[in-house]
Specification:
alpha+beta, Bifunctional nuclease domain, Pdz3 Domain, 9-stranded mixed beta sheet, 9 helices, 21% helix
Length: 340
């Protein structure tokens, strides 16, 4: 896997880069992060127009999410019981230099292995918006899907990315429906499943045989102000003036702002508004570098995370794998120990 994820080579014009970036407070008016606008502009569209889902071009050997008109391996979804699955999290969205298409990086929770999935522009926009924790004035497609599940007394338990056929990934939505003993399986493109799972707080798992044959990717990260990365259950962005004001972070304080904490990270006391200072004893100053730092930590061992809150630096140990539901705690637990 290419470590070019740490690159912050410019991918947007000055006009695009000037667009508002980090996720606003939920009560604030929505402003589209520049990376989302970039994805739309790359498709020849404005941020307010619609995109049709079309198969993205790709370089040889790069699996992608299935297109709407492609048939799944089986007409009736069957849970692949003979396969081993590993828990992953959506780490970031960027661009593949070789195929010039959007790509989503999934991170295996225990080993830190990255799994690239090439997606269409609309799906990349939906996934990036979920990572940025953006709320739109009216429900977008995947917000609507999530709302429908709730109204129909169902919930998305997990997305299983279980197969690769002809260079195309295939996925299953595993739904729990009230009054039904067995789970309901729904065939889905992984790109749609990822966008929905992020909104529903559902687990995401990838089959071991996909992990054993992961293709390489020449990943191009957005400019630093537009980067958003999730690892160790922490979603982080570069601090903006709005985020500093929201959380009372002084201008001279360097680090990354946590915009969401889930699983063990939330259980450890981390929550939105904390300023991430160091991981494993190494300072973190940009989201892409944070992902590389996390991947450099010893496999399977808890990671030391140092953060700043209310004028005090604290330190906690965060487990590398999250097996808790992906829902943040309303009331964070007691913070970690203070740093002298």
């Amino acid at each position: 896997m290419s470590r070019a994820v740490a690159s912050t080579t410019a991918v947007a014009s000055t006009a695009v880069a000037s667009t508002a970036v980090a996720a606003p407070p939920r009560s604030a008016a929505v402003r589209l992060p520049a990376v989302l606008a970039l994805l739309l502009l790359a498709c020849g569209l404005s941020a307010c127009s619609g995109c049709s889902a079309t198969p993205p071009p790709r370089h040889a050997g790069a699996p992608r999410a299935a297109a709407p008109n492609e048939e799944a391996p089986s007409a009736v979804p069957v849970l692949p019981m003979d396969q081993a699955f590993r828990r992953v999290e959506v780490s970031t969205v960027g661009w593949d230099r070789l195929s010039d298409t959007p790509v989503v990086l999934l991170r295996e929770m225990d080993t830190g292995q990255l799994v690239p999935i090439w997606v269409g522009v609309p799906e990349a926009q939906a996934i990036a918006a979920a990572l940025h924790d953006v709320e739109f004035p009216r429900p977008m497609t995947h917000d609507l899907m999530n709302d429908l599940l709730g109204k129909l007394h169902a919930r998305l338990d997990e997305l299983l990315i279980h197969d690769v056929v002809g260079g195309t990934y295939y996925g299953l939505l595993r739904l729990h429906v009230d009054g039904r003993d067995e789970p309901l399986l729904v065939d889905a493109r992984p790109s749609d499943g990822l966008a929905l799972a992020l909104r529903a707080g559902a687990a995401i798992r990838v089959s071991q045989r996909i992990l054993d044959d992961t293709p390489d990717v020449d990943f191009l990260a957005p400019d630093e102000p537009e980067q958003v990365v999730r690892a160790l259950g922490l979603t982080v962005v570069a601090p903006t003036s709005d985020l500093r004001a929201e959380s009372g972070i002084p201008a001279e304080r360097a680090g990354l702002v946590v915009i969401r904490a889930v699983g063990h990270a939330a259980e450890s006391g981390l929550h939105r508004g904390d300023l991430l200072v160091a991981v494993g004893g190494r300072p973190v100053t940009d989201p892409a570098g944070f992902l590389d730092t996390v991947r450099d930590q010893p496999v399977g061992e808890p990671v030391t995370v140092r953060y700043w809150r209310d004028g005090i630096e604290r330190e906690v140990r965060v487990a590398p794998e999250i097996e808790l539901p992906d829902t943040p705690d309303d009331e964070p637990p007691a913070p970690g120990r203070q740093i002298a």
